[in-house]
Amino acid sequence: MTKTHIGVDLHQRFCYLTAVDASGRKLKQGQVVNEGAALRSWLGQVPGPRQVVMEASGFWPAFARAVGPEAERLVMVHPQRMKAIASARLKNDKVDSETLAQLSRADLLPEAWMANQGTQQVRLLTRLRITLGQQRAKAKNQLQAVLHQEGFVKPVADVFGKKGRAWLAELALSAAARVVVEVWLKVVDQMDQAIAEQTRALEKMAEEDARARWLRTVPGIGAYSAMVILGEVGEMERFASKRALASYAGLTPSVRESAGKRKRGGIGHHGSGTLRWIMLQVAQVACRHSPAAKAWYLRLKRRKPAQVALIALARKLLTAVWALLRHGVCFEENVFAARN
Question: Which has the closest alpha carbon to 318: 255, 238, 236?
């Protein structure tokens, strides 16, 4: 049976849809509000089976749930690989949706992975914890900027600890500065409480997940970082090799080759920025607590800059994560130390 191919240019409040048949003939086209009933009604007016194609975006899960009953197959494509759209001279909703539909008909779609419901839930919670940490850091920086503006140099490493707060209470700040300091202290306290609650929740999830228990045997990976990794990686089976996972994390060097000459550059900074960030955090901890990781890092540091060596260690630890999750085993320090 021939399919109807439907390209969707998705926006937050509405989307533009174009439906074409197997020969490329346009069947229906138009703008629809992002409401389940309206979307399903539109799709129900074109013959099935229907293959619905959309570009990756932050609100694709809601769209997928809305059109699910009327779409035999839902495909998400990688926007950066959609050269037919990215390089087009004329770009609008109508053209983009029709291009997606025609590429679907020709089977020329660079498909992107769609996380399942469980992975989406883990990502929501881990990214909340990450965002809370970032917001707390901003609040702390704002308070310390006021101290700098007032001309005070902190005598303790942690202004927000017991000694630091006692010192803050005795400072001869201006009236406005005192108000600002007290407000930011309250914000930090609220953030501390929210972070503690989310951390406990993630620790409980890690205890109940066998994959997290395997990951926690890797130096530098705790309950929080294990859940972040699981949320970003999702189904490990989608990565055929350890290099594929490292590339997804943006931890592989870029390569330029021309006229028989090959040149390696810095890491690509593509893929999951969150996975790259957490693995760099893991690498820093591993350098302090794992003899094998520290020795490997120091050997490379003799030949490379410190940051390059740290990135390489993060990539090496991520390849260990790939092996653990693919084969369901625990980390072995002596095996890690034996590999170059």
Answer: 236
